[in-house]
Structure formats: C-alpha cells, structure tokens
Amino acid sequence: MSADGSAPIDATKRASEARRIETRSPVSGEVIGSFPIADEDAVAEAVARARAALPLWRALPVVERMRRLDGLKPLIEARGEELAKRLSQETGKPWVEALAHEIMLVPIFLDYHRKFAAKVLRRKKAHTPLLLTGKASYIEHFPRGVIGVISPWNFPFQLAIIPMIQALTAGNAVVLKPSEVTPDSGEMIRELFAELDLPEGLVQVVQGEGATGAALCRADVDMIFFTGSVATGRKVMAACAARPIPCELELGGKDAMIVCEDAPLERAVKGAVWGGFANAGQACVSVERLFVVDAIYDRFVEAVQRDVEALRLGGPEEEADVGPMIFKGQLAIVGRHIREAVAAGARILTGGAAVERPGHFFAPTLITDVTPEMSVYREETFGPVLPVIRVRDEEEAIRLANDHVYGLNASVWTRDLKRGLAIASRLECGQVTVNDVFSSVGNPSLPFGGVRSSGIGRYHGEEGLLTFTNTRGIMVDRALFEAEPNWYPYRGKHHGVLELMKGLIRKSPLQLTRGFLRTRKPKNED
User: Fold this and answer.
1) Domain CATH number, residue 312
2) Which of 105, 169, 297, 464 is surrounded by the fewest CB atoms within 10 Å?
3) What residue numbers bound the domain in which 47 lies?
4) How confident is the model at residue 203 (pLDDT cuts 50, 70, 90)?
5) What pLDDT digit, counting tens, does each position of 83-119 carry?
6) Are 279 and 311 spatial neighbours (Cβ–Cβ below 8 Å)?
7) Which residues have CB under 8 Å from 29's CB, separation 6+?
8) pLDDT digits over 222-279, tens only?
9) Cα 380 from Cα 292, distance rounded (Å)
C-alpha cells in the first residue's frame, strides 16, 4: 500500500522521492508497502502547519474538543475490522490481538475523556495563607502547543493514537512520526483524523527513519512524547534538553510476575502464558521474569509447559495464537539471549530457536534455571520467551523484582487479596496487577509509565492529560490596601514585619493581624 496520499494533513508531500521506506510482511517476507521519507524541510513544514492550526483548537472549550474527537467512534465502528486486518498484515499479529489490544481501546479512552477531561482541566481554587489576606489563588492548565509523538512498532496504532487523543483533548496540535517498521499504522491514523471536524493542519503525520525523528526533535515543537527503546530514549532526551523542551519517555520493561504459594494455580498458569506470549512477547509489559515460590514450583512449571506447547504459531490467516516477530532485527536479540542463557546453565523446556519458514518466527520458549547474571534476566528480550526463576518465598521474589534497572509493570498472584495489595505496594514500578496481567494498561483512569530506565512521566488518567499541559498559578488581590507590607518604603516597618513573622510561627492570629496592620496603610487613610 502506497502512502503518497494528498489529504491536507499528509505531511509527506514534500518528502524526498529519492528515498523511501519499503515494508515487508513479517509473515511472508513479501513487500507490502512503500512510503516516502520526510526530510528536514518537510518535517519543519508539518510542524508549521500544526502550529498555524493551534489557536483555533485551543480556543475551543474542552467539551467541544471532545465532541469533535468523538467522531472517531463511528469511524472505528465502521472500519474496525478493516483496520485490524491492515494492522495484522503489517505486524503479523493475530486479528484478535489487533482488534482487542489496539483498535478497541480508542472508544474506551474517548469515553473516559468525555466524562472527566473538563473536570481535570478546569481552573481550580488553591489555598491562600492567612498572611496573604485579601487575595484568592487559582491553578489552571493550558496547552503546551505542538506535541511531537514518536511511536513504536510493537503496538503501532494504540501507542500512537492514545497519546495523540490525550494531547488533542488538552488543546494541543500533534505531529506524529510512526516507526519506519510499521508506517501504514501511521497512515491509518492520518486517514481517521482527516475525517474529523478539526482545524486544517492540526494533525500531521511524517513518515521516515531515525533521521526524521531527530528532525522532529529539532523542529519548532513544544514537547516530545516518545515510546521506544532506552537507547533511543536517551537520544531524544538529549535533543530535547538542548532546546530545552519537555519530553515524556515510555521505555522498556523487564516485568516481574510473582506467584505465591496460595496462588489460584490454573489462572496463574494461563496468566503467565498469555502475559509472556501475547503479541509474541513484544510488549514493554510482557512477563519477562516469572518468580515462582519453591513450594509450588514444580507443578506450576509443568502446567506452564503444557500450555506453552499447545500454542499455535503462525500468521493471521492461520488463526494462530502467536504471530511472528514484527521487526526482523529483534530475532537476533532473542536468539542471543537464549544461547547465552543455555551456555550459563539454563534449561530450555520447549522452543528455543527460530522457526524454519518464511517470515520472522521464533518458537514460544519456556526456559528455567535462569539466574540474575544472564542477559535473558538483565536485558529486555522483547520476544516469545518466558524465563522462570525459582525463589524460596515471596520476600526473595520482592527483593529480586526490585533489584533491576527497569521498573515498569508487575503482577502478584495470591488468593489473599490483602496480601496481594501489600506485596504490590512494595514493588518499585509504575503499575501492578493482582491476579491479572496487562489489564491496568487498558484502564484509562490509571496513570501509565515507569521508573528508572523504564521512562519518565505518565500518560493515561488525570496525570496523562496534565502531561500535555503547562500549569499556571494565578493570584488575585481585592485591592483593599494601597501597598503590601514588603513594598517600599522600608523605613519604620522593621517592628511590624518582625511581629508578622512571630505571628506566623506561633500561629497567633492576633499578633499576625497587629503586625499586618502596622505595615500597611489602608486605602483613603490620611
């Protein structure tokens, strides 16, 4: 599919025709698309168009912005199946995953914003100290401006359109740079927003490789929202610091799943298998470290192996459970992690190698006897690999889970919900689920983001909306006095200011008032 479209928000029309992205199916290896690469000038023009459209959009009330963005819902209803199939063609993921993990989240997040956005973004009254009598204080939020969104290839639709919806709800314009691995997902988003009643140019899409993303960071944007690897995230952060502009970084994870002795065993087994292999393990919230207490370890691992071996591998047309690796280069990383783990003493119970067939397929792999020194434990594998670690008890599991450079997501499995919440509160990460995996990502009211090398900032929820705003404090004085105590002239004010200070420290209203009056002259006083 070609991306040469001429819609008003297509920012690739000035792109260099000499250089193009050629995409191949991860299932068959066949060429499925060709997209022109936006050069530095094309990126700058896209940003300029977005900025020109910004005043009309930011001037609209939040409820009106949401009314217009709600136009996405009938489009998703009418085109959802088609969009899911295009996503599956580009990524190789099963149709069910394309629909449930990517397309279906859009109306859920729109409903949340329609219900809560106006309340979150409205002006709020703030506390005013007694010393500042006669004044009122307020906090309000206003759009940052033009937001550059750089999205990844693992969930190329959802991880682009959700932050875009939040940025637009908050009153911003958006320039999207999709991953060069999955450019058609960006084209789908371009097509959808072109159907809405938005100011012309408000949403722009620029296709390209790393250089295009770097150009977007250098362009006249007011914030960068980046989802991707830690290595690229550092480059984005450095580019933003040079401006300086804020950035939000949604980076990697090495998520821990802790299975306690009293876990609901069958549910935990199925949760581990789905959490490890959904989207072929290509999720920052995939289960990548499975801690199982010694008391149930053997029977738990036996049950997991049974379910992993039952998984069907293949493309969407084969109605498979696990699809291919979306990015061919990731196969080498997965293979290296497995080889190094085996050389260091790990055991492969099933899988362990790329599959001999067209496309980028790696067999679902269950590996045990994993230790913290191994790369499959330390580094983000981002593939269909489930490493299992035997622990003495939950205390050891908590210690190991927290002793890592990543801190994005985790899960705790126990029938004692009070115990589960207590463990969850001790885990150093951005989200935790009890007796479930991934579900917190689909709740639009919960902030999403990580700690340490998993990123900076939060989106989703109230925090997510505010991420895309600047905060302004306002103080209003009723003008009851001609001057403030600390204004000129200073002569003769020493004793009054001293009493003010003592009154504040002692919380003495009488002393405070006496000092206040001795340092101010009311209006019209002779």
Assistant:
1) 3.40.309.10
2) 297
3) 16-120+140-251
4) very high
5) 999 999 999 999 999 999 999 999 999 999 999 999 9
6) no
7) 358, 359
8) 999 999 999 999 999 999 999 999 999 999 999 999 999 999 999 999 999 999 999 9
9) 20
35 and 76, same domain (yes or no) = yes
Look at residue 460 and tell me if it is in a domain.
no
**Do residues 281 and 385 both lie within one domain?**
yes
The answer to the question of residue 475 being in a domain is no
Query: Cα(314)–Cα(351) distance, rounded to whole angstroms?
Result: 14
**Do 165 and 58 belong together in one domain?**
yes
Task: Give yes or no for residue 3 having a pLDDT over 50.
Answer: no
Q: Are residues 353 and 325 in the same domain?
A: yes
Cα–Cα distance measured from residue 105 to residue 361, given in angstroms and rounded to the nearest whole number: 27
The dihedral formed by the CA atoms of 57, 105, 107 and 161, expressed in degrees to the nearest 10: 20
Burial of 250 (0-12, 13-18, 19+ CB in 10 A): buried
* Residue 416 backbone dihedrals phi, psi, to 5 degrees: -90, 100
225 vs 467: CA distance, rounded Å:
10
How many structural domains are present in the chain?
A: 3
- Active-site positions read 250, 284
| Residue 10: inside a domain | no
Q: Is residue 171 part of a domain?
A: yes
d(CA 376, CA 336) in angstroms, rounded, equals 9
Note the pTM of the prediction, 2 decimals: 0.93
- What per-residue confidence (pLDDT) applies to 430? 98
362 and 397, same domain (yes or no): yes
Phi-psi region of 505 (alpha: psi -120 to 50; beta: other; left: phi over 0): alpha
Residue 30 has pLDDT above 90, yes or no: yes
Given 199, 231, 251, the domain boundary residue is 251
Contact 382, 326 (CB under 8 A): no
Q: In what order do the strands lie in the sheet with 469-477?
A: 124-126, 135-143, 469-477
Q: Peptide bond before 489: cis, by omega within 30 degrees of 0?
A: yes
Query: 266, exposed or middle or buried, with CB in 10 Å at 0-12, 13-18, 19+?
Result: exposed
Beta bridge partners of 103: none
Give every CB contact of residue 452 below 8 A, 6+ residues apart in sequence: 404, 405, 406, 407, 428
Residues 6+ apart with CB under 8 A from 93: 87, 101, 279, 280, 316, 323, 326
Q: Would you put residue 181 in left (φ > 0), alpha (ψ -120 to 50) or beta?
A: alpha
Of 388, 412, 372, which Cα lies nearest the Cα of 261? 412
